[in-house]
Design a protein that fits this description.
The chain is mainly β. The protein has helices at residues 36-39, 386-389; strands spanning 2-4, 7-8, 25-32, 46-52, 61-69, 73-83, 88-99, 108-120, 125-137, 144-145, 166-181, 186-210, 215-243, 246-265, 277-279, 296-315, 320-337, 343-362, 365-376, 394-407, 412-429, 437-456, 460-475, 477-480, 483-486, 498-507, 512-521, 524-525, 533-534, 537-549, 552-559, 567-571, 576-579, 584-592. 1% of the residues lie in helices and 64% in strands. The strands form five sheets. It has a 22-stranded antiparallel beta barrel. Strands 2-1-4-3 form a four-stranded mixed sheet, with no helix packed on it. The chain has a three-stranded antiparallel sheet with strand order 10-33-32, with no helix packed on it. A hairpin with a 2-residue loop joins strand 13 and strand 14 (246-265). 26% of the residues are buried.
């Protein structure tokens, strides 16, 4: 699940396009472990919370960034904030990006505006009005095809999409946040928000190599449009209190949402040339969008959600704490088919809980264990088809144990955690009824994660993390040409067994800093049958920053230093590799005033 400043963003057809820019982001928190009690359906395992830059007290400070890099990449950005008066503070971020892209016809551009105004009404109460606007046309890349099952380096920069292809996102996000310190023991936060997203695609997305005729076939002409609006409110209370004479803290709250989603497309996506149109492998033509299906509104839905949640931490002893939580979700979905005139609906209820303990072995060392339940939809809740609406929420249970320690006079810290997740009631092909599904599937994963932060002598700093995961389908049948084929024991798509990251920094002086690191991702399967595999890769990056003047800092980023050719992900069940960015540089000048 992805959050923006603690607020959930519902995805339509699996697509979430906000936020579109990192310039206005203060940090990104990965909230490891189950978060289903606080955030509901879809939070199995962990959530990613994007924290935006916010107004601050004090003298107005401005930062201008000018950037230029490989492929004529350009940036002009402004970050401004501070106090307007004793009671009003603000933050304003602007960012304009453009690039020619590293693949043929890979142009991209984006404009992002973020503004916040905070009013400190009194010492205990404040209001903040914020608005974010992003207009983004990313590099339109559906990868390069495998030829006779093999990747060819000569195709690295090719773009097989059609001329005039579209991929465009327009997102608007407005929120009003009220923070109130009701008493020494009770505080309240309320956020009222409105999100509007417009998404548009029109592409030829599939490129399959015809081994018999030794030619490339282009197909999959998909035209899709999303209109989505989310209105909601989230209220929480944090209470310091006593429970059976023990120190305790509770968080209680509710959230409500109404999401409107309209889908327009050219389903059933019939191509003019059924088998695919032949194109030259090395010099693909840029002919236009060819579809035999008409582009028309398909459906519109209204999803109403309400939930109540509570979480408590009680200090059983000076070293031992008990953590518990409960949540109940209500979801009402109504969908109108705009072509047939039919309607469908579904009411879903989710109940989740968690319980855990934390034991401080020393002030700098602790161990913990927890167990929780969570729920997931069989698809995106706001865009469930009538056939998907007949099913209940999938259910999961997670058990986790971990250890955390600060050491070496708090110059170092490390963590290690082990977990086990089982998810049930997944859709699987019905062996007795071709084309139908049963909600009896099961999937599980066992994993270990570790991280290390270390401040070394002579101004060196080391950061490292690694993960090992064994994920599999425990009970799952896939429909293949109308026949149910067992995939039990197979590994899910795009899940590597091992990942690792390492970054080493050196401060040569107060004005000069340099760092380098590597990213490792193990091999992954590209299809449920585990027949097509993406190879592992290791990529090295580096960066240097220099404070050239009192108010000016220059930076240089080097990405993929050794120009590794690798598949970052895949498309079309592994028949197309979406490659990682080649070796590139990016220069920045940050000017403070």
């Amino acid at each position: 699940m992805q959050l923006f400043d603690g607020t959930r963003l519902y995805s339509g057809m699996g697509s979430s396009t906000f936020p579109v820019d990192t310039w206005a982001v203060e940090r990104v928190d990965v909230l490891r472990g189950p978060a289903s009690v606080l955030y509901g359906e879809g939070a199995t395992g962990a959530v990613v919370n994007v924290i935006p830059k916010k107004p601050f007290d004090g003298e107005i400070r401005n930062r201008l960034r000018l950037g230029y890099g490989s492929n004529d990449s350009q940036q002009a950005a402004l970050d401004s904030g501070g106090s307007l008066s004793d009671t009003f503070t603000y933050r304003l971020n602007l960012n304009q990006l453009r690039s020619n892209g590293w693949i043929d016809h890979g142009d991209s551009q984006g404009t992002f505006i973020s503004g916040s105004l905070r009013w400190q009404v009194n010492e205990a109460f404040s209001l903040q009005l914020s608005h974010d606007s992003g207009d983004h046309t990313p590099m339109n890349n559906f990868g390069v095809p495998l030829v006779d099952g093999h990747y060819k380096s000569s195709l690295r920069y090719k773009n097989y999409n059609v001329g005039g292809a579209k991929q465009h996102y327009d997102d608007q996000w407005t929120r009003l946040t009220a923070t109130w310190q009701i008493s020494d023991a009770v505080s309240s936060t309320n956020e009222l928000y409105y999100l509007k997203s417009r998404r548009r695609w029109a592409n030829a997305e599939n490129y399959n190599w015809d081994t018999d005729n030794q030619q490339l076939l282009r197909s999959g002409f998909y035209g899709i449009k999303h209109n989505q609006e989310q209105v909601g409110d989230r209220q929480t209370f944090t209470i310091q209190h006593s429970l059976f004479g023990l120190n305790s803290q509770s968080l209680v709250g509710f959230d409500v949402n109404r999401i409107r989603f309209k889908l327009t497309n050219n389903s059933p996506y019939d191509d003019v040339v059924t088998a695919g149109e032949p194109i030259d492998l090395h010099h693909p033509n840029r002919d236009g969008f060819h579809s035999a299906s008409e582009y028309l509104p398909l459906s519109k839905s209204v999803t109403r959600q309400a939930s109540f949640f509570a979480e408590n931490r009680t200090e059983l002893t000076e070293r031992l704490s008990l953590i518990t939580g409960l949540r109940r979700d209500y979801v009402d979905i109504n969908r109108d088919d705009l072509r047939s005139g039919s309607s469908s609906g579904k009411n879903l209820i989710g109940n989740n809980w968690k319980v855990g303990i934390v034991y401080e072995l020393t002030p700098d060392m602790s161990i913990y264990g927890q167990q929780s339940t969570s729920t997931d939809g069989v698809g995106g809740l706001i865009s469930l088809s009538p056939s998907q609406q007949q099913f209940d929420l999938a259910k999961a249970r997670q058990t986790e144990m971990g250890f955390k320690q600060m050491f070496w006079d708090q110059k170092g810290s490390w963590t290690v955690a082990a977990y086990h997740i089982v998810k049930k009631k997944l859709l699987t092909a019905d062996p007795q009824a071709p084309g139908s599904s049963l909600q009896v599937g099961q999937q599980s994963s066992n994993g270990v994660e570790a991280s290390l932060d270390l401040q070394l002598p002579y101004d060196w700093k080391l950061q490292a993390n690694a993960a090992l995961v064994k994920a599999k389908y425990d009970d799952f049948d896939q429909a293949v040409n109308g026949v149910a084929v067992s995939r039990s024991g197979n590994r899910p798509i795009n899940v590597p067994r091992r990942t690792a990251n390492l970054w080493l920094d050196k401060a040569f002086s107060q004005d000069l800093n340099a760092g380098a690191g590597l990213r490792y991702v193990d091999a992954r399967y590209a299809d449920i049958a585990n027949m097509n595999k993406l190879p592992s890769y290791t990529v090295v990056d580096a960066a240097v920053s220099w404070k050239a003047l009192k108010n000016t800092k220059l930076g240089l980023q080097l990405r993929n230093v050794f120009d590794r050719e690798y598949a970052s992900t895949q498309y079309n069940e592994g028949q197309q590799w979406i490659l990682g960015e080649p070796r590139s540089f990016y220069l920045t000048a940050d000017i403070d005033f």
